[in-house]
Design goal:
CATH class of the largest domain: Alpha Beta
Distance between the termini: 11 Å
Helix content: 40-55%
Number of strands: 10
Pfam families: HpcH_HpaI
GO molecular function: lyase activity; magnesium ion binding
CATH topology of the largest domain: TIM Barrel
CATH architecture of the largest domain: Alpha-Beta Barrel
Keywords: Lyase, Magnesium, Metal-binding
Order of helices and strands: EHEHEHEHEHHEHHHEHEHHEEH
Number of domains: 2
Cofactor: Mg(2+)
Protein name: CoA ester lyase
Length: 270
């Protein structure tokens, strides 16, 4: 699964749900949480269910961000998700505990959002849950939970590094947080580039103008693709000869490099 861009779409907006079909985001997240007022939750579920049957997003990943598991609305959200075959995954806001029960109950992949103090200190337990194959975080809710300053946590390298470290430790995708300043596309690009250097594979986005930038930044360059092809060919030839590590361009190449190369090649057919 490639998740260079994950676009949030308000489930209360028929116009935006329909528009998402033609956008180039790798993954769509239909939002039943923050984007929907409390009095419109049921209306949003009905609209989403109707349009899921009517529209076709192809092979793209379709997710639903449910309401907090502490709220009764989350159970109604999960009932909807369980009925909809097109939905691939559940995005869980303010995740704070083990989530295997969600995967066992629905069969859908799980993407937890680390957004509270408790969620941050229990992040490892959360991502170890059955069915979790990606993780992201939310700075606004996290800073509120910690009693800190949003602007400081937005640039906090510890949080950024910790989230990606937990993800990589359990071989799941780390997806960077949303960027709220829609007019500052250069700032968005810069944050994407910084996230990629830390090890993130993509970005959660909230506006169509951010999609192409995220897709570009989190895609490998032509040089990286050529390197990957050479590594795969050389490594697989060496493996046939019983060798597990080889020398390529005067550098050691082993199974780790081979895995990196295989992931890079996934982008060729996009």
């Amino acid at each position: 699964m490639i998740r260079r861009s994950q676009l949030y779409v308000p489930s209360i907006s028929e116009k935006m749900i329909r528009k998402s079909v033609d956008l180039r985001a790798d993954s769509i997240i239909f939002d039943l949480e923050d984007a929907v007022p409390p009095e419109d939750k049921e209306k949003a579920r009905e609209l989403l269910s109707k349009l899921l049957k009517e529209l076709d997003w192809g092979k793209r990943e379709l997710c639903v961000r449910i309401n907090s598991l502490q709220l009764s609305d989350s159970f109604k959200d999960l009932a909807l998700i369980s009925r909809e075959d097109k939905i691939n995954c559940i995005v869980v806001p303010k995740a704070e505990n083990e989530l295997s029960f969600l995967y066992k109950a629905t069969g859908k992949a799980i993407i937890p959002l680390i957004e509270t103090a408790k969620g941050l200190i229990k992040a490892e337990e959360i991502v170890r849950s059955d069915g979790v194959d990606a993780v992201s975080y939310g700075v606004a809710d996290l800073s509120l939970s910690l009693g800190g300053d949003y602007n400081f946590y937005e640039k906090n390298e510890y949080v950024k590094t910790f989230i990606v470290a937990v993800a990589k430790a359990y071989d799941i995708d780390a997806i960077d947080k949303v960027y709220f300043d829609l007019k500052n596309l250069e700032g968005f690009r810069r944050e994407c580039e910084e996230a990629k250097k830390l090890g993130y594979v993509g970005k959660q986005v909230i506006h169509p103008s951010q999609i192409d930038i995220a897709n570009e930044v989190f895609s490998p360059s032509k040089e990286e693709i050529e390197w990957a092809k050479r590594v795969i060919e050389a490594y697989e030839n060496a493996k046939k000869e019983g060798r597990g590590a080889i020398r390529l361009d005067d550098k050691l190449v082993d199974y780790v490099h081979y895995k990196i190369a295989k992931r890079i090649i996934q982008f060729q057919n996009l």
